[in-house]
Amino acid sequence: xxxxxxxxxxxxxxxxxxxxxxxxxxxxxxxxxxxxxxxxxxxxxxxxxxxxxxxxxx
Length: 58
Fold this sequence. Notes:
Blueprint: H1 2-23, H2 29-57
Transmembrane segments: 7-26, 32-50
Keywords: Membrane, Transmembrane, Transmembrane helix
């Protein structure tokens, strides 16, 4: 459970940073997507996959 909690906290931090950077237009949209959104999507997908595996084993 601790791994999932850490992952969700990390995901929220990345998405919050993306919102702040996008709001102040510190980088271009392509860079914003490659720096923040794609890693957040990967983390989210891995967390969902991990939960799905745990439900099947139970």
